[in-house]
Amino acid sequence: MLHKVNRRTLLKMLGYGVVASGAVVGAYGYGSRIETEWLQTERVTIPVKHLGSSFEGFKIVHLSDFHLYPHTQIEFIERVVRITNSLKPDLIALTGDYVSGYEVRNSEAIFELAPVLSTLSAKHGVFSVLGNHDHMTSKQVVIAGLKESGLPVLINDGVTLRRGQQTLYLAGLADGRRSHPDLSKALEKRPGHVPTILLIHEPDFADTYSSDGTISLQLSGHSHGGQIRLPGVGALALPRYGRKYDQGLYRVQDMWLYTTRGIGVTGPPIRINCRPEITEITLVRA
Fold first, then answer.
1. Radius of gyration of the chain from Cα atoms?
2. CATH 3.40.50.300: does it fit domain 34-285?
3. Fewer CB within a 10 Å sphere, N or C end of the chain?
4. pLDDT tens column, 221-232
5. Which regions in the chain score pLDDT beneath 70?
């Protein structure tokens, strides 16, 4: 049997509905038009065992998950580049997902993005690895675009960074979700047991790469921090291999891990309590 609702109660119910709908619309407008481009520079100091004295204060800027188009626009990336260069980093690390989506044609965006990224400036260079979206479109096209703009791509490979007689090793792995990362191969050029920084797109592989004490610091992206985070709850949704270490600094066994919230967005083009991030990491001697 249906119960009659008096006019005052009906109006109150309708009022609650209007308020709730307004809150949802307001939150979507804020999340899609304001926070998606409200850049935040996170500054982190990380102590590294056996770091040479000449690398004390070595500054790394970490960028990830650009996802150029359809939501992230090139003008926003240009602003990211300007801010990054103003930090005067020693090294810039790019950890994948330059493009978005599942179609090969989406990979063509790299030919607009890479020339902008090529204007990044660091004393010891700019190095990149690929992400799962780069594979889902066309990794060959993405690699070609990056290399055409002079951006080295580390796929199970590494480089030695030198300051005087002291060294630091940078290793980059193939994407852990869509390809075949090989740490042993990436470390083949390492000159002995020197402090080593590892670039891999997905953070949750830290449980694997922290196991033997070889890696000092892993840098990853992939999770976007969840894009929407609620107080006391955290991220509402996270991708595979980005669920355990979804944002910020972690100690995983004897290795540090930093997961950035990234630059762009995928899925619903909104961020709430999860601003896009430029990460400035300063290494100090432990």
1. 21
2. no
3. N
4. 999 999 999 999
5. 1-32
**pTM of the predicted model as reported, rounded to 2 decimal places:** 0.90
State the CB neighbour count (10 A cutoff) for residue 108: 16
In angstroms, the CA 264 to CA 192 distance is 37
Given CA atoms 75, 245, 95, 126 in this order, what sign does their dihedral have?
positive
| pLDDT value for 7 | 55
Q: What is the pLDDT of residue 20?
A: 45
pLDDT score at 26? 58
Domain residue extents for the chain: 34-285
